[in-house]
Specification:
single chain; mainly alpha; 69% helix; flat; disordered C terminus
Length: 278
């Protein structure tokens, strides 16, 4: 194919991919209540059915968040079709053995991504919500506990009457004021991060089969791999809370071991050196 034919083919595939995205976004708009039920479920579970209110600061915030969520879920829904269009364009320039490798990777990659998102929403997210809200309620002393008896002999109690606006001395003094946009961004971003983290077995298999990092080197580097997983979890998770970091570290390391098991069972055979075009 000439350069002009390649550009025409690329343009055609981009138009088809965008039409697929438009259909996916339309589906997300139609099922918008179910989409937001999925996003709000961790907040409901993490608070034992008593979630706090979600606020918004500007008049357009609710519409912007609504449209952004539908766009993201539309991209997720249409991603198989978009990947197919991309593949139809890229496959023309690949060798047959390279096509086989890509075909073997695409389906496991999609399944692992969905497994990572499901793992976060079903297991990690409710625990993260509970931990962070409970920490805010219990870590700080309430006004009734602010009195310091051991300084009474230095600073005597004020003889003035308490002001009319005196806050309540019981209950939690620190209360959450979550905004709709911040919660949605946090939840969606964490789901995407866990979905990408679940690609670890494919990365391990790719490194070993291409010879970039030999299998024996990977096998001897377990303690370094665990440290790398910890660093990735610390810098990748936007919440920076201990539970998210530990969950992602353990998940990535177990997936690393899963990739190593696959290689040990025979998956470390390299592709033949000869490459033949169709």
């Amino acid at each position: 194919m000439t350069l002009g034919e390649h550009l025409d083919e690329l343009r055609r595939r981009i138009i088809l991919a965008l039409l697929g995205v438009a259909v996916g976004v339309a589906i997300a708009f139609i099922f918008n209540r179910q989409v937001f039920q999925v996003l709000f479920w961790p907040l409901w579970m993490g608070t034992r059915g008593q979630p706090p209110k979600l606020y918004y600061h500007t008049l357009a915030s609710t519409f912007v968040v609504y449209f952004r969520v539908c766009l993201i879920f539309g991209l997720i829904i249409s991603s198989p079709y978009v990947i197919y269009q991309l593949w139809q364009f890229v496959a023309r320039g690949l060798y047959e053995n390279e096509r086989r490798v890509v075909r073997r990777i695409v389906l496991p990659s999609v399944l692992l991504f969905l497994a990572g998102v499901a793992f976060y929403f079903l297991i990690v997210s409710p625990a993260v919500v509970y931990f962070l809200l409970d920490f805010g309620n219990t870590a700080y002393p309430s006004p009734g506990q602010w009195h310091l008896p051991w300084v009474d002999w230095i600073v005597p109690a004020s003889p003035l009457p308490p002001p009319a606006s005196q806050p309540m001395a019981s209950g939690s003094f620190v209360a959450p004021m979550l905004t709709l946009g911040e919660y949605i961004n946090f939840t969606v971003l964490m789901g995407l991060v866990f979905g990408l983290a679940f690609q670890t077995p494919l990365v391990i298999v790719f490194l070993a089969r291409t010879g970039i990092v030999p299998f024996q080197t990977l096998k001897k580097s377990r303690k370094y791999v665990f440290f790398i997983c910890l660093l990735v979890a610390v810098f990748a998770t936007p919440s920076q809370d201990l539970f998210s970091n530990v969950s992602m570290t353990l998940a990535m390391y177990l997936l690393y071991e899963l990739g190593m098991l696959f290689l040990a069972l025979g998956g470390r055979k390299r592709q033949p050196a000869g490459r033949i075009r169709d």
